[in-house]
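re: ur question from earlier - yeah i can do the single chain one, its not a big deal. heres the input i used so u can compare w yours
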Amino acid sequence: PNLTSVVFWASEVYLDPSEGWLKRVERLYANKSRIHGIKDFSDMSNLRTLVFSFSGFAEFPQNMESLGCLSELTLGDYSKGLVDLAEIDLSSFPCLKKLELHAWYDTMTGIPKGLGKTGLTTLKIYHQQLTEEEKETIEVSTEKMGILD
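and the output i got, formated as tokens:
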């Protein structure tokens, strides 16, 4: 009942959305792992930190806006699934301070909506599918927020 953080390392993981601990977990870290079973982020509604490195969801969950407490989202070399960043609206995350989205393969498309969000202290977005217009939007948003990254 006191579980708040989970770390997966080099794993193929199936999470049962009906498990009660998923509603309580605040931090999820995955390195070189693929996570199956979570179809909707509301199954992990208390999540504050989501950090993936060379990891991903088999199917990127829906309803990311249900993570109203999210303060850090890092998808570093998101390589185990596909994600359309345009489906993420940053205005749904008033607590978000750090956003890092990287992929060196064709696993990401688009950029999140609401990049002008003022609460961010870190903003890094890079993937193979970025258009020149999206790169410019990221650069302008970073400058407006005073972020040097």
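The mean pLDDT is 92. not sure if urs matches, ping me
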